[in-house]
Amino acid sequence: GLAALMARAGLLVPAAAGSRVGFFDDVLADIGDKQSVMGDLSTFSAHLANVGAILRRDEGAGAKLVLLDELMAGTNPDQGAALARATAETLAGRPGLAIITTHYDSLKALGESDARFANAAMAYDLEALRPTFRLATGAPGRSYAFDIAARMGLPDALLERARALAGESSVGLEAVIARLQARESELVKQSERLAEAEAAAAAAAETQREAAAALARREREIGLKARDAVDAAVAETRAALAQIVRDAQQARDPRAAEAGRAELERVAAEALARLPAPPKPEVDASLPLAAGTRVFVRRLNADGVLLEPPDARGRARVSAGALTIEVTADELAPPKTTAREAARAAGGGKSARRVPDQPPAAASDDLALVSATPRRTVDVRGQNGDEALAAIDAYLDRAALAGETHVVVVHGHGTGALRKRVRAHLDGSPYVARWAPGTPHQGGDGASIIELR
């Protein structure tokens, strides 16, 4: 009742989050003992006066909240129970809500036989002989008269006689309610234990899934790094042996050239034979594999465009920068950047960063000492902007995985457009810690010397 009145007044209601409070036009109550010698009112008469006033209130005044404590108590139990049931049925036919407390068994039975009524009970701690202030809905409450009397020390013989006088129906009903309450309490405990077990199992399963996923990612990373490292070693060996073949050809010695070519193939084959096969990634079922779809190519560690969807063998063709390659479907994943971000990165968006005409001056430190060997150099002269940036990204991927600390990008002088484009790209690259133009022996301003992170 207080909560309903507080809600009407716009006050905060002392209730748990998610609780609901009805809005009532009137809150009426018969609570307490209003007997009066001067008014010639007994306890029962005082209750009747209050109930009569409540029933006479205008029925058209809107929904009412009626609170009746121990309805029709203080008189003959049979007659009081009959009056209480008739009063409850009358209130049930009117708009609003009535909450009635009673010890009458016949009134408790209404909650099981009439859909307009619902039973509820306040729990009681028999051990401590005190209420718990917890409401349990769905079942009527039981009377604790015999239990409390026993705890208070009344003789056993007296209690046995009282139970006999109460009759089998009354004692039997109390026993049924007691068993139902005990069973419900055990079910609640079991439900709580089950919920805890389910939560623990779900947490364990999630932890296991995360661990398995982390292990799979780690295995893929190790496999990719191993393959890239060996690929780099093979490429370096091929370059060295190719130089041997060229030297032999210039010496016009066919046997030396043939021997160099054979040595080249042997070393490359041995290196590839030692290469462990990387773990096969799963095919991303959420990726629409249709021509024109932007995709991420795991082999290149770069975004691209699907030119031809997978055929019957699971092979697809993709374009990534200047490269057009054939890959398997499991090498494709959702793109790392959106089409708009890719356009901006390529210089096509308004937000593309401008690079000043003069880059930072070359530092007279370790960058000036970097030698432009074939292994740590990528030459993009003659390529357009997009092709050059794709080649640089692919090279930086391999260099980072191979553990390189410094690399050289040769872009040439030309009109300066490619140089600006390349250096703007280096400013935003996650691989680049710093860069400087080359010294005269490194190619001057036609090269950029890079220190990797």
Can you give the helix content as a percent range? 40-55%
User: How does the major sheet shape up?
Assistant: 5 strands, antiparallel
Secondary-structure element string: HEHEHEHHEEHHHHEEEEEHEHEHEE
For the residues shown, what is the average pLDDT?
78
Number of extended strands: 14
Number of helices: 12
Low-confidence stretches: 342-364
Secondary-structure-based class equals alpha+beta
Key attributes of the depicted protein:
single chain, 453 residues, alpha+beta, 5-stranded antiparallel β-sheet, 4-stranded mixed β-sheet, 12 helices, 14 strands, 45% helix
Could you please describe the fold and organization of this structure?
Mean pLDDT is 78; it is low at 342-364. With 453 residues, the protein is an alpha+beta fold. 15% of the residues are buried. The protein contains twelve helices and 14 strands. Strand 4 and strand 5 form a beta hairpin. Helix content is 45%, strand content 17%. The strands form four sheets. It has a five-stranded antiparallel β-sheet with strand order 9-8-7-6-10. A four-stranded mixed β-sheet has the order 11-12-14-13, covered by helices on one side.
